[in-house]
Structures are given as C-alpha cells and as structure tokens.
Specification:
37% helix; single chain; alpha+beta; 115 residues; five-stranded antiparallel sheet; 2 helices
Length: 115
C-alpha cells in the first residue's frame, strides 16, 4: 500500500489505482535515474547553446568562454572528441562542437553530415 486511500478489490491488491502504482514505481526508480537524467539534461543544454551560437546557414562561429558560461554551458559534459589531421581536438555535444582557439575563445562548429 502506497497511499492512505482504502483498497478495494482483490485481497492481494497493493495499490488503490493506476496513478498510485505509477507514483510508487516512479519514486522507486527516481534515485537510480537522477544521475543519468541530470547528465542528459546538461548535454542537451550544451547542444542547444552551441546551436544557438551558430548563425542560421553558417558552419562556424566564434564565442568566448565568458559568453558560453553565462549561457549556462558546462564544459565538463560532452559526447565525443574528434582529432583532425592537424591534431586539433574538437569537443562535441552530439552534432555541435567547439575547438579551443586560445585566450578563452572557441570556434563553434556543426558536424558535417555524411550523405
């Protein structure tokens, strides 16, 4: 029994209704999923910030560390790295990424889709 409502029906019934059962199971799983949910939310937010930094139709843009941090960007969270032939390391959040240029400036890029 999860809530204080009376249970009617079968003797072995544990919940008064579907909502009560769902609430119980959601609370039970919440602790296990919080870390993953928080990381996924940070990744999605980072991607959205990078996407909004690129002007429509442009492949690259520059942004300062200060600007990205003010927007809520978390440098700790990313999905993958790409090292080009010159040895430059691009850090990605899904299909948007950045290259550190130095002096707290970054080149924001969109990953080219293969056709």
């Amino acid at each position: 029994m999860f809530c204080s409502k009376s249970i009617q029906g079968r003797v072995d019934k544990k919940f008064c209704d579907d909502q009560c059962r769902n609430n119980y199971n959601n609370r039970l799983k919440a602790g296990k999923n919080n870390l993953v949910r928080n990381i996924n939310n940070a990744l999605k937010k980072n991607r959205k910030i990078l996407e909004s930094t690129l002007p429509e139709g442009e492949g690259t843009a520059k942004a300062s560390r200060e600007y990205l941090l003010l927007e809520g960007f978390h440098f700790k969270y990313h999905t993958h790295h790409y090292v080009n032939k010159k040895g430059n390391i691009y850090v990605y959040c899904y299909d948007y990424g950045y290259l550190e240029l130095g002096n707290d400036w970054f080149l924001i890029v969109r990953e080219k889709m293969e056709t």
